[in-house]
Protein 1
Amino acid sequence: MSDQRLSAPSALRNREPILAVLRDALPASGLVLEIASGSGEHVVHFAAALPGLTFQPSDPTAEALASIAAHAGDSGLPNIRPPLQLDAAAADWPLKAADAIICINMIHIAPWSAAEGLIAQAGRILPGGGVLCLYGPYRRPGRELEPGNLAFDESLRSRNPEWGLRELDAVAALAAASGFAAPEVIEMPANNLSLVFRRG
């Protein structure tokens, strides 16, 4: 049987800095939904480090779902649920409640409708005080994009005109419309940001 595990070099580079943010942001216990889990390497790393939480990985693609299941199976961790097929832009999600949602490096490699769907559904399924954690590169008001992020943005837009780095203010406005407070903005390595939104 072929190895279905995918590997994302960026996941190995950024998992520790992201985990440090999640340790502070996530509740001590409860269910954490990960949107766009990709290879599954992040969710395994976080579940191993945060055993009090149960993690629900998800992804829209069959290839990613197979990889997530393979990585989770290899880990033997009891606090990772089987992955769900979930498109962030869908009007209806297969999970109706969670205590926190995390989404890493998705909204710039997807149409804006995916960000809209993610934040609208987060506003529906998270409880008061529930946390939405986003990670990735953003455009910030009054600041030029760093050369690396500018090149990345141009590359994304050349591959798909609906992709590209998002305006931090636009994401925060979407979140405010769905009942979230202004985000805590945390500087991360390689000109990325973590955004921690709490639902009112």
Note: The radius of gyration is 16 Å.
Protein 2
Amino acid sequence: MLASPFVCAALTRTLVAHAQGCGLPVDVLLQRAGLTPTQLHGHGQIPAMQVEQLLLECELAGAGREFGCELVPGMATHSLQGLNILLDSAASVRDSLACFIRYLPLVTNCVLVSLDGAQLHMRRYQHQPHYYMLDAAVLSLVRNIARRAGRTPAQMFTQVSVLPQQAAGRWLQDWGVAVVSAQWPSLQLAPGALELDLPGANAFLHQSMLRQWQGAGMSEAREDSLQLARHWLAAGDQPIERIAERLGYRQPSNFIRAFRKQFGVTPKQFRLSALQPA
């Protein structure tokens, strides 16, 4: 059974604060989305469909087309602050992105991110997120990756693909980044960008933050990722090594061992069973 899609409470609080700053009737919108103030407290998980409904209610209440784009500063300052410290202190762009891909499922599993060569792919998990959420995700990635490397977005990315309904295209073009329309967002890094050292690299701080992110919530995130692995294995269109890489395992053997411990069979055995005719 696949894990239910969620958005962490901290990120949801950022959405609510932005809506309030736009003069929207937050209390009414929360009620329409079936959200209670109690759900917004602490570090819990909020069902993604409720958050998506909240974004839809914001749009219906008059939020502008660029509402999601304007979320980016708040996401960096508040909801993702702890994660940003971890990513900023990594040794290189590649190391930073590896941490992001690995720990994003603790923040939200609505959007899946993978690195294929020098291209960052974004995919939906179980449903299509509201374009406000996609705008915030794409622009946050572009801006923060460039900031960490001490470069401009145009120096770090040769092209970014966005959905036709997204508003992020204009922002990216203003930043000097080429934009194309696609069925799902992806970000093409410039040659050599992945190997750039980060000016803010700090091994001691990075290890300290890494231990924090590997703490209590990591076992739940790992279990969720293995449930997702079953979904990909059953689909049968990706090599096991590729699935291991997408889930953040440096060695396929570690993925195989974790999968067998969780489900009692190897990924190959599970795939063969899943692909057999009923």
Note: The chain has three domains: 6-65, 73-195, 216-275.
